[in-house]
Amino acid sequence: MESQELLHPENSEIQNQEVNPEAAKTAQDINESATPESAVEPQNAENQAEKEPVVASEPADEKNDTEATIAQETPAELEKPEETLEQVETEYSSFNLEQCVAEMEKLVTEPNFNVVKQRVGVLRSKVLEFIREKRRKLQAEYEAAKTEALNKAAEEGQEAPQIPEFSYEPDELEKRFNDAFRIFKDNKAAFIENLEQQKIKNLELKNNIIESLKNLLESETNLKVLNDKVKEFQEQWKTIGPVPQAESTNLWQNYHFHIEKFFDIVRMNREMRMLDYKKNLEMKLQLCEKAESLLLNDSINQSFNELQELHRQWKEIGPVPDDKKEEIWERFKTASDQINQRRREHYDKLFAEEQNNYNAKVVLCEQAEEIVNKPVEQISEYNDTADKLTELLNLWKTLGPAPAKLNDEIWMRFKSNLDKFFQQKKEFFQQIKDVQMQNYNQKLNLAIQAEGIADRTDWKQATDEILALQTEWKNIGATPRKYSDQIWKRFRAACDKFFEAKSNYFNNAQTEETENLQKKEELIQKIISYEFGEDRNANLDAMKEYQKQWLEIGYVPRNEKDRIYTEYRNAINKRFSELKVSAEDIRHSRYQSRINDIMHNPNAEKLIDREKNLLTNKLARLREDIVLWENNLGFFSNSKNADILTAEFRKKIESAKREVADLEYKIKMMNNPKANETSQKPDEKVEPKPENETNVD
Q1: How confident is the model over 408-460, as pLDDT tens digits?
Q2: DSSP letters along 237-306, please?
Q3: Which terminus of the chain has fewer Cβ atoms in its 10 Å neighbourhood, N or C?
Q4: What residues contact 186, with CB distance under 8 A and at least 6 apart?
Q5: In Å, how far are 530, 537, 567, 568 from 522, measured between CA atoms?
């Protein structure tokens, strides 16, 4: 369960854990609940002095005294460490995840969990924050990859892929931290278990002392032996540690009962009693000196804890002579009062400082709220606002803790404003990134188109297209910085390649055009001299091959262009007429040839769409004209020249209908150009277009 708790940082929040002076002040000062010396010694001390000997230390017999003693049996191992939470947080503030794990592994080697628990808590909070941030990044990357995959599938018209749900697995550092944290919890459990076991053993030992004391009082008659044995039992009792809380009061009362019974037995031994009083006085004088020396200790908590131990020892020491009783107690009490007063003043000052810190943090919250609520629309404004909030956060860190009951509240107020702004900033910059990625995709598409144009030799159309791409490029906004240079270099390289090839071509154009003229004249002679066989399809294929060769031959000198093309058209038309191919078939074949040319263009899809749109618009206009002309026939019937007008319009309508049929055929060919290319009828011929003409039928 520890690993699950660690690997789900959303279940916990990093908060400032600060000292609560109110809680510290509510603890009873050791002096205020202590019993005066008169309570430590029997109230009828003067009468007992005459009847009782000076023997082993006499215990206190009041209830309050007993409760204070029980409270002081708390072992030093359970006291809080001297270092503060802020000191620990400051020490670990610059640690990364690996350093935190290494420090954790080092700390858990200390078996006493109480010594390191505060440091472990701070390390655990930092590690949770690291894991939470890592998980957010991984999930963001997963969501981005998922969206990209779905968009790609949608663009390609494919079914959406099955994408597994996001899962998070801890890495090696997290596993090491979990193992170390588990050792810490095991150490804690073992420490507490050992402590409880030791208390049970202590209870058994003290019960044995009480039982031995009881047997001693019932069996021993020698006063000297009895006194020595009781003192021995008292020393043993002092060396034994705390017992379970539930048994403490009853155990202490039982022990007191037998000690009092012992004093009843030795009451007559005054000399021994006075000797014991003198020894007790010396011991209490030493405790007074130790208490007074604590005033020189700079550590408030340490001096207070040591004072508690001195009070515990004071209660274990028996009575002193009556004439010194009040004096010695006042001296010890005075030192205790001064230590307690210093402690109260310390926490009063700490509380005042925390209140001042709270007031200052309220001001910082108000400033943060004012900054966050101010409208922000520009990148520079977001950055300026982020700098201001960061400055406020740095100032916040310089302030100490606020009162514990208000500390979490004021921190959440401040943190919520920061979270609100930085979430808005994140969404704003994410929108910018999305737009830049869209711009990148557009420029990538332009670069791909430019690369397709770079190898073309239809210089006029290709030049127009690549210049159009450059204009479109300029109108597209910025792209992500890490892709900007890369995509620009790619686009620029394609453009440079095209214009360099164009420059080289036109530098050598005259020689090449002369060679092309000679090739076309030779091809015309081949067309004229070709002998048809009996296989009509073979004859058509031969003519198509000649047409294909004509298209593959480049430009000729401009002054020879019309002549050579006329000779070619005459030759090819003559040969087609010999094959008895209709004009409509020639026209359809010519258009099919044009589609085939387009399909070999790198921008075939774009050109096909443009051609189809032109044909569709033209078809729609012709149909509207036909309807209009047919309606107008009725108006012309009553006019003076009705026959002439109606004949003219009927001629237009018939011509338009033939053109409509032709356009419908072309659109049908456009809808499936590849199929038409492969399924051309054998009796169709392909008519080449004149050289240097545009692709307009």
Answers
A1: 888 988 888 888 888 877 877 777 788 888 888 888 888 888 888 888 878 88
A2: HHHS----HHHHHHHHHHHHHHHHHHHHHTTT-HHHHHHHHHHHHHHHHHHHHHHHHGGG-S-HHHHHHH
A3: N
A4: none
A5: 12, 24, 12, 11
Convert 315-326 to b/e letters by CB count within 10 Å (16 or more is b).
bbbbbbbeebbe
Give the integer Cα–Cα distance in Å for 455 and 600: 13
Class of residue 450 by CB neighbours under 10 A (exposed 0-12, middle 13-18, buried 19+): buried
d(CA 60, CA 546): 130
* Contacts with 666 (C-beta within 8 Å, 6 or more apart), sequence order: 591, 615, 697
With beta carbons less than 8 A apart as the criterion, state whether 473 and 484 touch.
no
pLDDT digit string, tens, across residues 628-647 = 777 776 665 555 556 666 77
Output the CA torsion 566→571→573→578 (10° steps): 160
- Contact between 273 and 51 under an 8 Å Cβ cutoff? The reply is no
CB 595 within 8 A of CB 678: no
Domain ranges of the chain: 270-402, 583-697
Whole-prediction pTM: 0.31
Q: Cβ atoms within 10 A of the Cβ of 447, count?
A: 22
Q: Which are the contacts of 287, defined by CB distance < 8 A and separation ≥ 6?
A: 310, 313, 314, 317, 332
Q: In Å, how far are 75, 100, 446 from 16, measured between CA atoms?
A: 28, 18, 54
The C-alpha atoms of residue 449 and residue 603 are separated, in whole angstroms, by 8
User: 């387009």: which residue's tokens?
Assistant: 598
